[in-house]
Amino acid sequence: KEEGAPSFRTATELMRQFWKNRRQHLNKAGISNPQSNAFLEPLINYMECQGKISAPATIVEKTPDVLDAFISFGILQRSAKHNINFCHQRYLDHLIAERLLRNIFQESDSVLSWLGKKGNQSLFRREQLRQALAMLSEESPTDFFNTTRKLLESKAVRFHLKHLVLELIGQFDVIADDIGEYFLELLNKPYWREHVQQTVFLRHHPWVSYLLNAGLISKWLESDGVREINSALWLLHSVAEDIPDPVTEILAPLVDRGSEWPNRILTAICRNEMDDSEKMFELRLQLARLGVVKDFVIWESLCAKYPLRAVQLIEAVLSARNINDRATSRSGKNPLECLYDDDLEALNDAVKKCPSQTWNLLMPHVERLTNIPVDDYDHDERLQNWREERTAKSGMDVARGTVELLKRALATEQPDELIARIAPLKKGISPIIQEIIIAAYTHLPARYADTGIAWLLDDL
């Protein structure tokens, strides 16, 4: 507390800080570092050799004052069976790893010899190995690479420890050339390919960035092999939220390939629109204009964070429609094309924040898709999605939702601008636009009543 909170980024650094702090407290209590080490050595030897997390109290009872201090400072504790154990197993694991590291640097031991035969490589060793390798990576990257390579290639090491090595390497923020090139080699080996992809590369953006820079992702996407293509898309999607622009840059040129590629790209970008960068969201809109959209949008969250994006997404969906499209059944619609009450409420709040942009984006599509001669308004299938209100528990088509949004878009926020924009639409033949005008006038402030009445009288 006196020195402030210690800074650490990893569990290993935290454990180092813990032992530094405990040793300082022990020093203040009159117990020197040599005394502490001499006290701990038989405990560590017993627990490591026996593969246990406790030891008989008789091992340390010759120095009761030191034992009391270790208990007082939360390092050791007595158990009911007259044993001594560390308050947390990681305390012991760190001390064993620390001792192994000293021996490695003194060239009196190696990780392979320390692990011993497969029968001794139990889960008891796992955390000790992790801490030893983590410290080795920080203090001597060259020794770390040589050690991990020997561990992965040795037939005398159990796979659960090799998997631990992969997990540890996957967490690197900076990829050294020697390690990077080595793992590119492992990707070409059938035995290692899936393990390396899932444990080292997947969801780890430094490693996926390394693959991008090495040109491997591009090579896979250009290949004719479905496995390679799917691997590339899978890896890109796993880090899309972390590095959206690099992901977008490699995917965007592939849209023009057509066929199944737009759908493939949709699966590789961020799941949620709120996580898109500006570039990635533009790519999403490009896909939507091709009719390729995801099956669900959390409109409430999108509208709250990016109100204009919500309107742009609706515009993109409408842009994929044609004037002669026939209405589809509720069950046949993509879920994104159905809006429910909560969705409309959120979208109306978004429209209030960008009314002019909403009108500019959506009204041209209303004109394009509804400005047609109609003999029977109630039965013309081309207008069904535009006029059909919601039913009991089914959603409203996005076309009808667009009508509802435009009714209020400018009326309450910018009435003068609404009147100016309505002027060129008054003579249009679209019954949908006429409905929007009539509803918009009802939402104008009372001082504009004469304008609405004049419009009614102009064409009874």
SSE topology:
Elements: H1 11-28, H2 33-50, E1 54-56, H3 64-72, E2 76-78, E3 83-86, H4 89-105, H5 111-115, H6 126-139, H7 141-153, H8 159-170, H9 177-187, H10 190-201, H11 205-214, H12 216-222, H13 226-238, H14 244-251, H15 261-268, H16 278-289, H17 299-305, H18 307-319, E4 338-339, H19 341-353, H20 355-370, H21 384-387, E5 396-397, H22 398-408, H23 415-422, H24 431-442, H25 449-458
Antiparallel strand pairs: 1-3, 2-3, 4-5
List keywords for this structure.
two-stranded antiparallel ribbon; mainly alpha; three-stranded antiparallel sheet; 5 strands; 460 residues; 61% helix
Helix proportion: 55-70%
Share in β-strands: under 5%
What is the mean predicted local confidence, pLDDT?
A: 89
The Cα radius of gyration reads 34 Å
Tell me the number of helical segments per DSSP (H or I, 4 or more residues long). 25
Strand order of the largest sheet: 1-3-2
Summarize the structure.
With about 450 residues, this protein is mainly α. The chain has helices at about 10-30, 35-50, 65-70, 90-105, 110-115, 125-140, 140-155, 160-170, 175-185, 190-200, 205-215, 215-220, 225-240, 245-250, 260-270, 280-290, 300-305, 305-320, 340-355, 355-370, 385, 400-410, 415-420, 430-440, 450-460; strands spanning about 55, 75-80, 85, 340, 395.
Provide a descriptive summary of the structure in words.
Helix 12 (216-222) crosses helix 13. Helices cover 61% and strands 3% of the residues. It has a three-stranded antiparallel beta sheet. The N and C termini lie far apart (82 Å). The protein has a domain at 295-460. With 460 residues, the protein is mainly alpha-helical. The chain has helices at 11-28, 33-50, 64-72, 89-105, 111-115, 126-139, 141-153, 159-170, 177-187, 190-201, 205-214, 216-222, 226-238, 244-251, 261-268, 278-289, 299-305, 307-319, 341-353, 355-370, 384-387, 398-408, 415-422, 431-442, 449-458; strands at 54-56, 76-78, 83-86, 338-339, 396-397. The model has no long low-confidence stretch (mean pLDDT 89).
